[in-house]
Prior knowledge:
By secondary structure, this protein is mostly helical. It is built from five helices and no strands.
Amino acid sequence: MFDQTQTERTQFDQAQLNCEAMRQLIHAAQAHWQGCDWPTRFGPRNLDLAGIRSRQAKLAAKATRGEEATGWAEAVAWLAEVENDAAQAAGLAERAFCEAELAKWVAASDLLQQAESLEAKYGQLDGYQQVREAFQRWFASNSQL
């Protein structure tokens, strides 16, 4: 009897540890991707938008004239889309975590796939792919409990 109880407690502790590890992995992906965080050559002026947010590009568009202002205005729209996709992916990952806590593995997996698809549009990121792969391992370990 003791062995079974000890095994159950170990499995529960492992599930809790995996839960916390998953939470940390999601937070890392969210922190890493909030906007354009990679080198770019955007538009005809080959703007490098790495680390620039749409609100900053908007200021540059207002401070410049002509072709340069047009380039920055186009960058504003693209950066806003990147930031929106990042925020949407973060929300999907949060929802996936909540579903996983309720043992709704299929729903969680679907939500993570959506987050990964948003991230994949930009080709420079893999945080949500790593989250999805880790969730798959978590799903497998929880299905054995």
